[in-house]
Design a protein that fits this description.
single chain, 153 residues, binds adenosine-3',5'-cyclic-monophosphate, 37% helix, globular, Alpha-Beta Plaits, alpha+beta
């Protein structure tokens, strides 16, 4: 089982798309095992987006990500890091394929609704940045036998 960090960004909250986006992950059969609303501070933004801090778009990104509350979640599942990135689609909503979350709801490079970790190292770092260990509550869904065959768990 893998875990990934997903953020529903300020545009997702403001546009009342939280429920729709969360439903996509639930309907896929992924486990949401951590969930909270929070305000990103400039300091948290700089830590999270450390690799982008020097990029020309960073000031706009920080202004956007700190402008309104976000929802952070830890999502668990088999190959979940890749599965969730595929569900999000390309970074720009204009380039993301139809059927992906960004492809269906975003027309922007910056306001692309959702963030998800891009690899195992980033997932571990980002989960630790947003969640204390006791805020993560793994559980076995009682319907697990109807999501996967026994040898796929
Ligand atoms: P995310 O997947 O959270 O990772 C970095 C974020 O920076 C990205 O989504 C976008 O919100 C934003 N971003 C990436 N590239 C650009 C860009 N060229 N211009 C503006 N914002 C960008």
């Amino acid at each position: 089982m893998e875990r990934t960090l997903v953020l529903l960004k300020p545009d997702c909250v403001q546009r009342r798309l939280m429920g729709k986006v969360l439903s996509r992950f639930e309907e896929k059969g992924l486990n949401v095992i951590g969930l909270k609303m929070l305000q990103v501070t400039p300091q948290l933004a700089k830590t999270h987006y450390a690799e982008h801090v020097q990029k020309p778009f960073y000031p706009g990104l920080e202004k956007f990500i700190t402008a309104s509350p976000i929802v952070a979640m830890v999502v668990e599942g088999l190959e979940v890091i890749r599965v969730v990135r595929d569900m999000l689609g390309a970074t720009s909503g204009l380039k993301a394929a139809a059927g992906t979350i960004r492809g269906d709801y975003s027309s922007s490079r910056q306001m692309n609704l959702v963030h998800a970790s891009d690899g195992p190292e980033a997932a571990a770092k980002e989960i630790a940045l947003y969640f204390k260990p006791e805020e993560i509550l793994p559980y076995e869904p009682t319907l697990i036998g109807w999501f996967k065959a026994d040898d796929e768990k």
